[in-house]
C-alpha cells in the first residue's frame, strides 16, 4: 500500500484505489523516477567494491572534539581541552562525575555475545565506535557492532532498540540482534547493536574524492547522482517519519552508497546507517545528537523539538555539500551557459527551501521534498540529453490551452477584410485562464459536484449554496471569477483565504498571480509565480508561468531559458514550444523555430496546430526562397477543409509575391501552389484567384467587396 496524498490524512491507499482512512479515491501521484539500469541518468553508478578488511582502522584515531555528557540530562561538555591543555580521550564529566571514554572498547579477537568475533574498528560515529565482526554461528557472515560511548548513554541505546527492532526498509540498515559485553575499563556490561554489514562508500568519502578530482563512483560525480542519492535517503526518512521518529543526525558520514553489480544487474543503493540518534518527533530532551552545520539551531529544538523539518534541513545541507563536489558545480562556476544550468538552479531552490531558517516554510514531509527532487531530476536529465520525461503532476491538472497567440491557427478572413494582424504574444488574460488549474487537496464533496464542469458560470451556480466553503471551493470560485473577468469577486475569494499572521499557502500565492495577470499587472504576477516556483522547483506549471511573464515583460533571455527547460522535459507542454518558437523567430532563427514546432509529438492534441504554425513561420516577413519551398511542401501535406486551405494558401501566395518583388533571382519551386520559378505576373494572377476564392467565405457584402477589390488590385494589369 502507498500513503494517501490528501492533506491531513495519514491513511494508506489500498489495492482498491481508495484510502483506508478518509475513504477517498487516491489523488494522482507524480511518477517517481526509478533507476533504469547502470549508466542511466536516473540510476546510481556501479563501481568496484573494496575489501572489507581494508577499511579497518589498525591505529584508530581517537576523537576528542567534545560532546554532551547526557547522563541523566547532564548538559556538560566532555572530551574538551582545558587551559591550553589537549583534550583527554578518557576522564570524568566535570559536572556529574560520570566516567567517559572515547577509546574503542572492543579489540580484534573479542567474542561478543558468544557469537560475534571482532575484526577491528571501522569508524567512529555519533554514539561511539563501529566495529566489523564475523557471525561465528552463521557462516562467518560479516556484521557491524555499534555500542554507545559510555554507560551514561544507555537511554539512547534503549531508544535506538525500540526504534529499530522492527525496521525493514531497503534504504535503512537492518538490525539483527542486541548483545552485551563487559567493558574493558569499567567491567560493566555494555550493550551493542548487531547490524548488517553494508559494503560501499560513505558519502563523505564520495564528497572528498570528487573534490580531489577523483572518480569515487567510477565516473564523474554529477548533479543527477546527488539528486538520486537524496531521494533514496528521503525514502528512508519517510519510513521513519511515518512511525513518529526523527533521525536527528543526518550527515554524509551516516549514509553509505553500496555498489550494485553488472554481473547480476543489481543496482547501487543508498543505505542510511547509525540510527543511534533516533528520537520521537517533538522530543526536546537532553542528549539529542546532531552535528553542526547539518543540525538546526538549539533555539529551534528548544522551541519545536526535533521534527521532520529538522531532518530535512540536515539532508539539505548534506546534499548541498555533495553538489559542490560535482563536476557540474565546477563547470557552472566557469561556464554559466551550461545546458543544464536551469536544472541546477531548480535543484538549488529545493535545497534553499529545505534549509530555510523558518521551519514552517520548509517542506512539510520527506515525500514532498522527494517529489520536488524527482521533478528536478527529470528537468536536469532532459536538459542534458534532450529526452522527453513527462509525468502527471499531483498538484496541477492538465490543461488544453495552447497560448500560442494564434501562431498555430490558419489566418482568419479578418486578416484581409479588416487588416487584422496576429498578436505577437498571448494576452495576460489568456495566460491567466490558460495556465494549469490547481488540483484540490481536501475531501470536500463539493469538488465532486463540479468535477468535469468546464463552464465557469455553471461552476459558480453549483457552488452558490456553500455557506462555509473549504479552501478548495474558494480557490475554484476564484478561478471561475477570473475566467468571467470578475476581478473583484476573485479578490474577495482570495481575501477570505489569506493569513495575516503567516505565509500564504502556495495555492493562494498562485491565484494571486493569476489575479494580477488578468488585471494586466505582469510584473507583480511574475513575482508571485517566482514565489511558487521557490516552493515547488520540480513542478512544470510555475516555471511555465514565469517564462510567459518574462516574455511578456521583454525579458527574452529568461523566457527562453525556462521555456527550454519545460519543453525539453515535457513535450505535452505546447505553450512552452510555441513560446520558444516565438522567441527564436524574433531572433531571426526561422529554422530553429520550425525545429521546435516539429518536436510536437504526433499524439499531442496540438500536433496539427504545430504543423500549421510551421507554415506560418516559414512564410513570415523576410522569408527566403528555401523557406517558401518548405512552406509549400508542408502546406500540401496538411489535411485542411477547403476554406481553411484557401486561407493558408493565400497567406503563402502573399509571402511568395513579397519575395518575388525583392529578388532578381526567380529560382524557386512552388509545387502546385505557384509552380517553378514563377514571374511576378504569374504570382499576381495566382494570388488574385486566391482572393476570389476567399470572397466566397465572406459573411457580409462589405467583406465580399473588400476581397474582390483586393483581387482586382492584385491581378496583373493588361493593355486593354
Automatic annotation (TrEMBL):
Protein kinase domain sequence ranges: 116-403
EC number: 2.7.11.1
SUPFAM superfamilies found in the cross-reference section: Protein kinase-like (PK-like), TPR-like
Organism listed in the record: Saccharothrix longispora
MF GO annotations: protein serine/threonine kinase activity
Ranges annotated as biased composition (Low complexity): 28-40
Region: Disordered, residue numbers: 27-67
Keyword set, alphabetical order: ATP-binding, Kinase, Nucleotide-binding, Serine/threonine-protein kinase, Transferase
Record's catalysed reaction(s): L-seryl-[protein] + ATP = O-phospho-L-seryl-[protein] + ADP + H(+); L-threonyl-[protein] + ATP = O-phospho-L-threonyl-[protein] + ADP + H(+)
Protein name: Serine/threonine-protein kinase PknG
Ranges in coiled-coil conformation: none
Amino acid at each position: 500500500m502507498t500513503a494517501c496524498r490528501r492533506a491531513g490524512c495519514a491513511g494508506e491507499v489500498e489495492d482498491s484505489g481508495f484510502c483506508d482512512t478518509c475513504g477517498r479515491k487516491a489523488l494522482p501521484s507524480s511518477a517517481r523516477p526509478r533507476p533504469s539500469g547502470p549508466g542511466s541518468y536516473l540510476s546510481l553508478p556501479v563501481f568496484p567494491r573494496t575489501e572489507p578488511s581494508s577499511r579497518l582502522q589498525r591505529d584508530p584515531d581517537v576523537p576528542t572534539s567534545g560532546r554532551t555528557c547526557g547522563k541523566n540530562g547532564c548538559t556538560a561538555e566532555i572530551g574538551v581541552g582545558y587551559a591550553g591543555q589537549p583534550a583527554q580521550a578518557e576522564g570524568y564529566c566535570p559536572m556529574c562525575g560520570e566516567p567517559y571514554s572515547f577509546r574503542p572498547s572492543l579489540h580484534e579477537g573479542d567474542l561478543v555475545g558468544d557469537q560475534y568475533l571482532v575484526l577491528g574498528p571501522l569508524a567512529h560515529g555519533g554514539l561511539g565506535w563501529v566495529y566489523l565482526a564475523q557471525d561465528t554461528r552463521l557462516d562467518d557472515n560479516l556484521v557491524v557492532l555499534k555500542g554507545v560511548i559510555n554507560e551514561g548513554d544507555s537511554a539512547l541505546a534503549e531508544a535506538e532498540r525500540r526504534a529499530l527492532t522492527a525496521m525493514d526498509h531497503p534504504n535503512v540498515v537492518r538490525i539483527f540482534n542486541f548483545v552485551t559485553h563487559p567493558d574493558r575499563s569499567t567491567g560493566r556490561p555494555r550493550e551493542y547493536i548487531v547490524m548488517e554489514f553494508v559494503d560501499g562508500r560513505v558519502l563523505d568519502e564520495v564528497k572528498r574524492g570528487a573534490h580531489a578530482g577523483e572518480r569515487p563512483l567510477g565516473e564523474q560525480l554529477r548533479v543527477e547522482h546527488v539528486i538520486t542519492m537524496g531521494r533514496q535517503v528521503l525514502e528512508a526518512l519517510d519510513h521513519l517519519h511515518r512511525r513518529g521518529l526523527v533521525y536527528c543526525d543526518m550527515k554524509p558520514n551516516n549514509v553509505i552508497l553500496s555498489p550494485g553489480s553488472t554481473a547480476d544487474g543489481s543496482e547501487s543503493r543508498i543505505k542510511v546507517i547509525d540510527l543511534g540518534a533516533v528520537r520521537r518527533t517533538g522530543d526536546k530532551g537532553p542528549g539529542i545528537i546532531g552535528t553542526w552545520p547539518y543540525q538546526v539551531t538549539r533555539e529551534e529544538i528548544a522551541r519545536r523539538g526535533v521534527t521532520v523539518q529538522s531532518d530535512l534541513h540536515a539532508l539539505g545541507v548534506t546534499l548541498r555539500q555533495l553538489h559542490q563536489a560535482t563536476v557540474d558545480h565546477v563547470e557552472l562556476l566557469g561556464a554559466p551557459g551550461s545546458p543544464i544550468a536551469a536544472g541546477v538552479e531548480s535543484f538549488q531552490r529545493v535545497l534553499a527551501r529545505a534549509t530555510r531558517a523558518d521551519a514552517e516554510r520548509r517542506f512539510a514531509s520527506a515525500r514532498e521534498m522527494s517529489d520536488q527532487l524527482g521533478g528536478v531530476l527529470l528537468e536536469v536529465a532532459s536538459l542534458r540529453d534532450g529526452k522527453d520525461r513527462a509525468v502527471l503532476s499531483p498538484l496541477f491538472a492538465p490543461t488544453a490551452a495552447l497560448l500560442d497567440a494564434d501562431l498555430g491557427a490558419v489566418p482568419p478572413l479578418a486578416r484581409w477584410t479588416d487588416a487584422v494582424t496576429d498578436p505577437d504574444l498571448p494576452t495576460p488574460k489568456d495566460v491567466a485562464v490558460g495556465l494549469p488549474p490547481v488540483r484540490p487537496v481536501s475531501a470536500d464533496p463539493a469538488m465532486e459536484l463540479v468535477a468535469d464542469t468546464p463552464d465557469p458560470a455553471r461552476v459558480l451556480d453549483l457552488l452558490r449554496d456553500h455557506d462555509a466553503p473549504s479552501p478548495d471551493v474558494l480557490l475554484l470560485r476564484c478561478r471561475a471569477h477570473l475566467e468571467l473577468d470578475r476581478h473583484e469577486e476573485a479578490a474577495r475569494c482570495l481575501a477570505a483565504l489569506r493569513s495575516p499572521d503567516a505565509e500564504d499557502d502556495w495555492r493562494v500565492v498562485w491565484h494571486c498571480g493569476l489575479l494580477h495577470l488578468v488585471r494586466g499587472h505582469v510584473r507583480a504576477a511574475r513575482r508571485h509565480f517566482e514565489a511558487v516556483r521557490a516552493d515547488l522547483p520540480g513542478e512544470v506549471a510555475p516555471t511555465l508561468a514565469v517564462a510567459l511573464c518574462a516574455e511578456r515583460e521583454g525579458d527574452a533571455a529568461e523566457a527562453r531559458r525556462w521555456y527550454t527547460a519545460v519543453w525539453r522535459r515535457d513535450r505535452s507542454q505546447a505553450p512552452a514550444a510555441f513560446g520558444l518558437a516565438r522567441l527564436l523567430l524574433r531572433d531571426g532563427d526561422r529554422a530553429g523555430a520550425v525545429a521546435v514546432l516539429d518536436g510536437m509529438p504526433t499524439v499531442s492534441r496540438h500536433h496539427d496546430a504545430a504543423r500549421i504554425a510551421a507554415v506560418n513561420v516559414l512564410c513570415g516577413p523576410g522569408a527566403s526562397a528555401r523557406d517558401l519551398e518548405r512552406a509549400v511542401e508542408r502546406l500540401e501535406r496538411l489535411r485542411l477543409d477547403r476554406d481553411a486551405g484557401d486561407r493558408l494558401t493565400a497567406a503563402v501566395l502573399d509571402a511568395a509575391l513579397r519575395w518575388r518583388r525583392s529578388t532578381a533571382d526567380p529560382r524557386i519551386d512552388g509545387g502546385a501552389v505557384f509552380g517553378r520559378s514563377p514571374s511576378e505576373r504569374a504570382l499576381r494572377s495566382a494570388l488574385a484567384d486566391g482572393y476570389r476564392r476567399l470572397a466566397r467565405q465572406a459573411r457580409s457584402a462589405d467583406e465580399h467587396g473588400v476581397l474582390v477589390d483586393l483581387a482586382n488590385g492584385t491581378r496583373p494589369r493588361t493593355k486593354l
